[in-house]
């Protein structure tokens, strides 16, 4: 629910050179890393910052290599620490954020407002309530509780897995409330099943963005209020693939598989492109219904959508759908093929 910042001053970086613009995979990163060492730039802070930023933030899936590079830097500055904490908080293993912060403190590096925001995001993803409370204490110790960026992150943490009363207190103490803080507290109420309070906050929002609408729709869906979710969905001034996926998944979750398939047709009619999440929900609906004909049509749609890059998750979902729809022969044949072969195979 936390939004991406398009102008994040925590990076404090100049425009990258063409060398870094072309660094888009692990191999290129390793080549640049080697060049920096060979040419003696491994003490150049600007080069090291770009190196760490590329590994932790820019290139997907190479955070472990970023940790290896970071461990070789004798005296990382606050930018490098923050970049590693931020990258780790967004990775598949966010637990490393606490270790990084502990190492940072032990080396005598003073944290800033960005440090705690990234650290809290990691705690929120892990739902580490006690650790998050400790981080909140650090925020108070260093005097960053007045910073709006930190406050919004605290509201998000306490709304999701901390103390909702604290989240509410911070929210109402804000001199100016942004759409981020409104949405964070609304999501907290919805997540705890307080749909009445969540809707009251939603209705009171002076400005609602797409995330705000998605938050409230998701709250209704997760609590079984599909009729209210549909009403809000129809009222939403704009929708993205997340909005559609929430409704489709909600119908499947609550046993309204036909309605999920109908919503998919609506989605296509308005020109919204489905993604993997959409197809996983729809394949589950077909499997529950045992509707082989619709399942085959979905298989064709998936082939067109993925264009030769079918994930293992989607491949397994297709096999499960064919098996549950009674087409055991196709399901068995597909288990013997590489995932990419599912795309060129005629499901008939």
Automatic annotation (TrEMBL):
It holds the Pfam family PPR_2. One of its GO terms (molecular function) is RNA binding. It comes from the Eukaryota. GO terms for biological process: RNA modification. PPR repeats lie at residues 77-111, 178-212, 240-274. Transmembrane segments: none annotated. Gene3D superfamilies: Tetratricopeptide repeat domain. Keywords: Repeat. NCBIfam families: PPR. PANTHER family: PENTATRICOPEPTIDE REPEAT-CONTAINING PROTEIN, TETRATRICOPEPTIDE-LIKE HELICAL DOMAIN SUPERFAMILY. This is Pentatricopeptide repeat-containing protein. It comes from Salix purpurea (Purple osier willow).
């Amino acid at each position: 629910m936390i939004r991406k910042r398009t102008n994040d001053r925590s990076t404090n970086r100049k425009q990258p050179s063409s060398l870094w613009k072309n660094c888009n995979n692990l191999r290129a990163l390793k080549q640049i890393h080697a060049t920096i060492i060979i040419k003696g730039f491994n003490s150049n802070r600007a080069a090291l910052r770009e190196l760490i930023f590329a590994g932790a933030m820019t290139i997907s899936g190479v955070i472990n290599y970023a940790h290896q590079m970071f461990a070789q830097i004798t005296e990382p500055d606050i930018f490098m620490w923050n970049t590693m904490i931020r990258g780790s908080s967004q990775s598949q293993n966010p637990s490393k954020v606490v270790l990084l912060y502990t190492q940072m403190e032990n080396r005598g590096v003073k944290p800033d407002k960005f440090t705690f925001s990234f650290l809290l995001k990691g705690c929120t993803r892990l739902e580490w309530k006690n650790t998050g409370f400790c981080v909140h204490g650090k925020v108070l110790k260093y005097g960053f509780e007045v910073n709006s960026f930190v406050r919004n992150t605290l509201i998000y943490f306490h709304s999701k897995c901390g103390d909702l009363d604290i989240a509410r207190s911070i929210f109402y103490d804000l001199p100016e409330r942004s759409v981020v803080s409104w949405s964070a507290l609304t999501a907290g109420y919805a997540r705890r099943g307080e749909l009445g309070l969540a809707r009251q906050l939603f209705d009171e929002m002076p400005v609602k963005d797409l995330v705000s609408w998605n938050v409230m729709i998701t709250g209704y869906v997760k609590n079984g209020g599909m009729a209210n979710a549909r009403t809000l969905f129809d009222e939403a001034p704009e929708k993205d693939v997340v909005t559609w996926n929430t409704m489709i998944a909600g119908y499947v979750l609550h046993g309204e598989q036909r309605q999920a398939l109908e919503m998919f047709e609506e989605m296509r009619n308005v020109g919204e492109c489905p993604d993997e999440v959409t197809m996983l929900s729809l394949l589950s609906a077909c499997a529950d219904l045992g509707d082989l004909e619709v399942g085959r049509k979905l298989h064709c749609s998936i082939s067109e959508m993925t264009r030769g890059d079918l994930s293992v998750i989607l491949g397994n979902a297709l096999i499960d759908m064919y098996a549950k729809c009674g087409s055991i022969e196709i399901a068995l044949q597909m288990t013997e093929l590489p995932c990419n072969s599912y795309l060129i195979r005629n499901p008939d």
